[in-house]
Amino acid sequence: MGLSLSDRTAHITQAEIRVMTIECEKVGGVNLAQGVCDLGVPREVMEGTTDAIARGYNSYTRYDGLPELREAISGKLLCFNGIHADPSTEVIVSAGSTGSFYCACLALLNPGDEVILFEPFYGYHVNTLLAANAVPRYVKMRSPDWRFDPADLERAVTPRTKGIVVCTPGNPSGKVYDTQELRWVADFATKHDLFIFTDEIYEYFVYDDRAHVSPLALDDIRDRTVMISGYSKTYSITGWRIGYSVSQAKWADAIGHVNDLIYVCAPAPLQMGVAAGIGRLGPEYYASLREEFRRKRDLLCAALKDVGLTPTVSQGAYYVLADVSHLPGADSKQKAMHLLAVTGVASVPGSAFYVSETGDNLVRFCFAKKDAELEDACYRLRRL
Ligand code: PLP
Questions:
Q1: Is 167 strand, coil or helix?
Q2: Pocket test for ligand 1, best of 119, 203, 232, 240 (most atoms within 8 A of CB)
Q3: Across all residues in the chain, what is the average pLDDT?
């Protein structure tokens, strides 16, 4: 018979981001491929963690997280998202929002269940679904404002459809879903009896006059929605692995048991650090985050416009998709490599976010960089 890898691993491809990061290192370039926010960790969050270690928060926590953090999240859900959630039964803290999504998929999906994603999509959503033996189906969003046609949702549905994923603000599109679009998704999910999985990790990164709307805040889909978010981006702690899901107790209980099985718990003192951040950081922190990233977005978009790599200006999150159709190369991989060779700026080929050929003429840039690095990247891009 011979030893072999599981069928599951055959479907899971290595992230293009990692490939481009390696290529970027080889040429000593500026890496705008990776979505790592290397701004500082707020002092309140760091102190909350070191205090917790000193006070003995070093053991396993309850499978659904420390009460201090679940209560802090519940308070934030009410103030920021307009959602009432019981911290003792409806909030599950996990290993980042990535861990939260994986637990939700394993708890709620059977092998062969189909789940609809909007294209362009975030690759981890696809790979997580594949790892859970679910089947992704795609509905197209169209630039520049990434609208979708509700009729396309009806075209994508089959008797096996069990869920739909909404990533708002979106990676890589930067799309912020408005209430009307969420209403379409809500009505569609209700009509076909589907779960709605949200990914709101960029909820604080929303620009211009837009506002973040959480699907879970729509009353009539409360029972079928699993909200997923976390603090990796908001507090620049991507390596800490603190995220959470919110859903009705019946789903949350099962998600919590899967979380226990896979991760046991999220790191105890880091949970306390995040709880301290939520409790102590006021609205001015989040407002300045938003302003800071809007400024970075504008800096990068101006440089891209100047060299004819027309960007679709992001409504939220910290990525920009840019049109590279006039660069040499047969596909987005070759175009991204050309850009790296000529300017020393690394991006992610659009094919990483599309199953259709639309991605062939796009690359994604991340603007979550320190000013000096971003300015260097803009300077280099202008060489094009
Ligand atoms: N969801 C989206 C849309 C992301 O872009 C990312 C990171 O790039 C994540 C989730 C990962 O979040 P976490 O660190 O909470 O697992």
A1: strand
A2: 232
A3: 95
